[in-house]
Amino acid sequence: MQFSSKLIENAVGEISKLPGIGQKTALRLVMHLLKAPEEQSESLSKAIVKMRHEIQFCKKCHHISDEETCNICNSPRRDGTIICLVEESQDVMAVENTAQYFGHYHVLGGVISPMEGIGPSMLKIDSLVKRITESIATDQPIKEVILALSPTMEGDTTAFYLTKKLKAFEHLKITTIARGIPVGGELEYADEVTLGRSIQARVSFAD
Amino acid sequence: MQFSSKLIENAVGEISKLPGIGQKTALRLVMHLLKAPEEQSESLSKAIVKMRHEIQFCKKCHHISDEETCNICNSPRRDGTIICLVEESQDVMAVENTAQYFGHYHVLGGVISPMEGIGPSMLKIDSLVKRITESIATDQPIKEVILALSPTMEGDTTAFYLTKKLKAFEHLKITTIARGIPVGGELEYADEVTLGRSIQARVSFAD
Fold it and tell me: Which residue ranges does the record assign to the Toprim domain (chains A, B) (predicted)?
């Protein structure tokens, strides 16, 4: 594609490095920025650089954070005896948006995937074990770990690995999020595995 | 949506101001930037700010340019006696990408639209008239203006306005791009107006 301007070409090139954004979309964004006041481009750029430069990962749960420990771990209102185990920081945000969970989190940073060369040692599993071990001596021992991983081959493998690893803690309850028909989903379009699991794991209607 | 980080929230806020990018997409882009090396965020930001700050508009044709006059107007290889009239700089790029046109351009900066309060005086029409007038005295008088506007109400209105305005130049040929069935388009899905026009404006098969 010809841009007849090196400046435009550079900007389009950089923007189209982002996932899901091709040259045409990048050009549309550039043209939008050109029409908008210069301040918009400046505040956009500043927000990106500042975010990338200053972001930290919570020392306790590895969730993205503005400080050393995230505001979920810091909050006195949250129940530190339950840990919801997720793959990525986005998953923490997704669970937070449900407003149905008030415990702590632990971000693994991925799932075990031999295909992509990701082994257990590359995930934050040791730090989870350490976290549980250290909590035993305190007045708030971790008593439940909720596995909230994706229902993929890799997610299931990771879940099994963790279950084995955490078996040593006899007091610890290991749960997983319910699989079933999504709310608003139609039965006839559900796949057999999901439908089968949702029948096996049926709940009392009053719940 | 909860982000549990002011830095993320700001970045997502700024990115989702762009057209066609919602909060979820913005968050995906932010997460991508977090995983990528810090240099990527920096070069992205720099490219945007530099582009917005240094971009100019060609004094002759109003196309975006790195210098006072764009490289199309500057090129000795291009035919300055033909002008292709377009709405926006994107349209110049689109025509350039066809590699079928070797004349100059004139970017109107929009089309006449009473609904949006855009009158002829807000477009670069006077500068087009001036350009044609001034060219008469030179050894390369402008002899053709190709109207390459969108086939919308506004585009057609603008085309009629321009035709009337340019009638004063008796030597000037005013043409418009051909309307017809797109290459690869199927006849049965074409709308009646397009199909009708493509029959009226049929061309010899040898062409």
Answer: 81-182
Query: B100 CA to chain A: closest CA distance, Å?
Result: 13
- Let me know if domain B57-176 sits in CATH 3.40.1360.10: yes
d(CA A2, CA B94) in angstroms, rounded, equals 8
Q: How far apart are CA B107 and CA A64, in angstroms?
A: 46
Residue in A38, A70, A90 nearest the CB of B31: A90
Using CB atoms and an 8 Å cut-off, which of residues 143-162 of chain B contact chain A? none
Which is nearest to B132 in space by CA: B123, B143, B147, B148? Answer: B143
Q: What is the pLDDT along chain B (207 residues), one digit of tens a residue?
A: 777 789 999 999 999 999 999 999 999 999 999 989 999 999 999 999 999 999 999 999 999 999 899 999 999 999 999 999 999 998 998 898 888 899 999 999 999 999 989 999 999 999 999 999 999 988 889 999 999 998 889 999 999 999 999 999 988 999 998 888 888 878 888 888 888 888 888 888 865
